[in-house]
Design a protein that fits this description.
about 950 residues; lipid transporter activity; about 45% helix; membrane; ABC-type transporter activity; alpha/beta; Alpha-Beta Plaits; ATP-binding; transmembrane helix; six-stranded mixed β-sheet
Length: about 950
């Protein structure tokens, strides 16, 4: 008798509690995720407020810098700064482009501590003390001679000091460089100009306009060193190690840039440039609007990539024609207007999206947990041991509800504590009601979606795509509909049927109410506001509650039937069987009879007799048979143009109580499919089976209460111990108190998992053999009437296998055990009857002696003699004893003969071999009876031959 619903719920609750206690760190991280998010948001708000206060302190001395005549900046009511009238800033000046190079103390040299840089780099002792180290550029390419000529023209040669005219375009002939870490945005900083070689004290002087004054700049020459490397891999390694693996915390041995000219030649120019992008080259990006943007124009951005390309392009053009060049004269910013500084509210800046994503974060967590038990077949394993659907869904729902409740409380609590007005201004009871409705909707939606997935990986990826995609759709699509006052409310309601849009609408209305309260010193969302038809909050709540129950109903339906079609089909069959049961059974009988007549010609006598026995048993009202298979058939329909696969062909079997029935067969014969049909894993295409008088087509839930299953692959929880597994399954079999403890101890001892504390170790630390023994113990606990064991001894050592056999043999006294195996020794030791299946059909059935007598009626004589004439003479001798003998093995003087038992006597063989030993050199000989393995091989070969001839 199976456990009651309350006992099942208690068993599952205890098991789940142990698992969740061991996953406590993960659960805490999930619940505390809002704290991490809101701490980041609150910290950013504090940092912005501090910077704004600094700006306010300096406001009295700052003018608009372009509003004309130095108009004073005034603080506005919101804490920002305003110019009296908006105005355009002055015309932007022209600035020569600059190339970023490392400072002298960090340029690559030949004696770095970590690199062994190539010997062509400057010597540190001679250049770093004087601050004259060259700026190194690494070069590679497919045509080294061509690249060498390009390298020679990379920097224009000027051997003497020059003073340029005030026209800034003349600077384009020079590669101006900047090597400071901290850029001064109020002045034009040029540290050097690059040359292939520099003379002592070589200087470049030029004038430039700075505001209303003209200034003269004097810059020193820096050598630009172009160094060849054999491959881009060497360059990449040198760049990385020079930049990131320098002495102490400083970045030493830096390379300025690197060129890969690829397949470039005289008629083809291709170049790949590596440059350092970690420095901030944009002056305007440094000025992040925390100070005033309306002051005068500042220094230009460093055009790093453009200048590097320009250098290589000019060098290439010089090879084509000495007079050609691309003149890179100056850079200039676009005109822009003055902007006042406004106070920054981080909550209004981030919008609704982070809150929506945070609330949806539990969806993939719930989804993957459900799909995990589905993928690992743990759910069906529990079901096969008697766990009902109601108990499973109740405990699962309660766990996810509790997790969601804690998550929502964390979401609201931490948001309020950290000062986010989104939470503080809206009524907490209103927030709780809406979040409560949504988290229940989210759980039911996850349950529904779990029916669509069988892989945890796919479910996880889909879940996070759902979060990101639905949030973005809400922000950039649904929001525009909500804000459109001319759009019919019906369209918005239709979109809100998608749960993510319902959540987005809730967050949006809460945010708008908080924003309005912030600027008008009023409260946010209150209960009275729900009556306002403009915000639609009442309809959102109604939709969520209705969908909550709808999704739960659909999830339960799909979980029970698998699909809508299966549910309808099963309901129709059940209806017909109830309305006209006799006619339905007669139809089924006619179908089975036709299939029997079609296959009877190919079946052997023992198989036909077994089928007749099944027909006779089915007509009896009471019998002593636990399992009766009535013409079971399973067909897998072909996909992608492949032919259908018949896994089981009209199988009829009867298995009495107190016996172990062995199912043998080669791989792919249909053994596991048969077990899957009997245990509810797979629905039969036609036919049926009766377990303790109950039909597997309609009464599987009742059958589960009285069976035990050891599946082909171990279905265990990695975070439970062996004892905890048996506790759970024992409670499902209605054991409790002392009987439960005694049954667990007995099971653990029978499979050698009791000693040494093995039973109290996590299953994740078990070996494969230990997991297998635990699976067998689970199948036997609770005194099930029928036990299925699919290859129970696979992976076991000889000692453990022997103990397992003894446990199974002692357990079969008052129950039926159905066992599949590839071990003939195991089948002979445990099985009272054996059925051999091949190509989905039952080929023979009987006990071990009957099968060996009927399908292996021969002796096997093995003789080893000298090669040559002795082999031929021995062959003639054996043929004289058994005229129909068959040679089954022959190699290097060793021959194996198969002789029919009805032709020979054992004494006759012994006399013949003693006589032969006197006449020839017989090295060894032996006579053996047929083994079960020989029977198995013979039956399998005959089946293959028969199927090949039919095909």
């Amino acid at each position: 008798m199976g456990a009651s619903c309350l006992a099942q719920t208690n068993a599952l609750f205890r098991k789940s509690l142990v698992i969740q206690r061991r996953a406590g760190k993960t659960n805490c991280c999930i619940v505390l995720f809002p704290l991490l998010l809101f701490s980041a948001i609150g910290g950013l708000q504090i940092a912005i407020n501090v910077e704004m206060l600094r700006g306010l302190a300096a406001a009295a001395s700052v003018d608009c810098g372009g509003c004309g005549g130095g108009v004073a900046v005034a603080a506005n009511a919101t804490g920002g700064m305003d110019c009296p009238t908006p105005c355009a800033l002055p015309r932007a000046p022209k600035w020569p482009p600059l190339l970023q190079i490392p400072p002298p103390e960090r340029r690559a040299v030949g004696d770095g501590d970590l690199l062994p840089f190539a010997g062509d780099l400057p010597d540190a002792a001679s250049c770093r003390a004087a601050g004259s180290c060259a700026a190194a550029f690494l070069v590679t390419g497919g045509n080294r001679s061509f690249v060498a000529r390009v390298m020679d023209n990379m920097f224009p040669a000027h051997n003497s000091s020059a003073k340029l005219p005030s026209d800034i375009s003349a600077l384009s002939d020079y590669v101006l460089a900047e090597a400071d870490d901290e850029l001064d945005f109020n002045s034009f900083e040029v540290s050097s100009f690059l040359q292939k070689t520099c003379t002592p004290n070589q200087t470049l002087s030029f004038t430039y306009q700075s505001g209303n004054t003209t200034e003269t700049k004097h810059v020193q020459c820096t050598q630009g060193l172009m160094l060849w490397r054999d491959s881009l891999w060497l360059i990449s390694d040198e760049l990385y190690r020079g930049y990131y693996q320098g002495n102490s915390k400083k970045k030493t041995n830096e390379i300025a840039a690197a060129y890969d000219f690829l397949s470039s030649d005289q008629g083809n120019f291709n170049v790949f440039i590596s440059y350092n992008s970690t420095k901030k080259f944009d002056a305007y990006e440094q000025d992040i609007s925390l100070t005033f943007n309306q002051r005068a124009w500042q220094a230009p951005r460093l055009v790093q990539v453009s200048r590097l390309i320009n250098m290589a392009s000019n060098a290439y053009l010089h090879l084509r024609a000495s007079g050609l060049k691309i003149s890179f004269d100056f850079v200039k910013d676009m005109p822009r207007a003055a902007r006042p500084m406004r106070p920054i509210d981080i909550s209004s800046l981030i919008g609704q999206l982070p809150y929506v994503w945070t609330m949806e974060l539990l969806f993939p967590v719930i989804l993957t947990n459900i799909v995990y038990e589905k993928q690992k077949k743990l759910r069906i394993m529990m079901k096969m041991h008697g766990l009902g659907d109601f108990s499973y869904w109740t405990i699962s729902y309660c766990y996810f509800f509790l997790l969601s409740l804690l998550y929502v409380m964390s979401f609201t609590l931490f948001g309020s504590v950290l000062g986010l007005r989104f939470f503080r201004l809206n009524d907490y009871s209103v927030q709780f009601v809406y979040y409560f409705a949504y988290m229940n909707l989210q759980i039911s939606f996850a349950f529904l979606m779990a029916s669509c997935f069988s892989s945890v990986r796919t479910a996880t990826v889909t879940g996070y795509f759902y979060i990101i995609g639905s949030g973005l759709l809400g922000e950039f699509l649904f929001r525009s509909y909500v804000e459109d006052v001319f759009l019919s409310r019906s369209w918005i309601t239709l979109l809100e049927l998608f749960p993510a849009f319902s959540l987005y609408h809730i967050i949006y209305e809460f945010a708008q109410s908080a924003l309005l309260g912030n600027y008008m010193n009023s409260s946010g969302m209150k209960w009275v506001d729900l009556n306002d038809p403009k915000n639609g909050m009442r309809s959102v709540l109604t939709i969520m509650v209705l969908e909550w129950f709808l999704f739960l109903s659909l999830a339960f339906y799909l979980d029970h039937f698998g699909s809508f079609q299966n549910g309808i089909r099963k309901a129709a069959v059940l209806f017909h069987s109830r309305v006209d049961k006799n006619r339905f059974q007669a139809t089924q009988h006619n179908i089975q009879l036709q299939e029997f007549k079609a296959s009877a010609d190919n079946e052997k006598t023992d198989v036909i007799k077994e089928r007749e026995t099944v027909e006779q048993i089915l007509q009896e009202s009471k019998n002593s048979y636990s399992v009766i298979c009535d013409n079971l058939k399973k067909v897998y329909h072909g996909k992608d143009g492949n032919a259908k696969k018949i896994a089981v062909r009209g199988l009829s079997l009867s298995m009495p109580r107190g016996q172990c029935f062995g199912v043998l067969g080669p791989n792919g014969a249909g053994k596991t499919t048969l077990i899957n049909m009997l245990t509810g894993f797979t629905k039969p295409t036609s036919g049926t089976a009766y377990i303790e008088g109950m039909d597997i087509q309609f009464e599987m839930n009742k059958i589960y209460a009285g069976i035990g299953v050891c599946p082909q692959h171990d279905l265990l929880w990695e975070t439970l111990t062996g004892r905890e597994h048996l506790l759970f399954y024992g409670r499902l079999k209605n054991l409790r108190g002392a009987p439960l403890s005694q049954a667990i101890e007995k099971s653990l001892k029978s499979v050698r998992l009791f000693a040494g504390g093995i039973a109290d170790k996590l299953v994740s630390k078990y070996s494969g053999g230990m997991k297998r023994r635990l699976s067998v113990a689970i199948s036997l606990i609770g005194d099930p009437k029928v036990v299925y064991m699919d290859e129970p001894s696979s992976g076991l050592d000889p000692a453990s296998r022997k103990d397992l056999w003894n446990a199974v043999k002692s357990a079969k006294q008052d129950r039926t055990i159905i066992l599949t195996t590839h071990s003939m020794e195991e089948a002979e030791f445990l099985c009272d009857r054996i059925g051999i299946i091949a190509n989905g059909s039952l080929q023979c059935i009987g006990n071990s002696k009957e099968l060996k007598a009927k399908y292996g009626g021969s002796y096997v004589l093995t003789v080893t003699t000298a090669t040559g004439e002795a082999e031929e003479e021995m062959r003639r001798l054996v043929q004289s004893i058994s005229p129909t003998m068959n040679i089954v093995y022959h190699i290097s003087g060793t021959q194996k003969f198969e002789m029919a038992k009805q032709e020979v006597r054992i004494s006759q063989v012994f006399r013949a071999m003693e006589h032969a030993k006197r006449r020839m050199n017989v090295l060894a000989w032996g006579l053996a009876d047929t083994t079960l393995e020989d029977v198995f091989i013979r039956v399998a070969r005959e089946s293959d031959s028969a199927s090949s001839s039919v095909a």
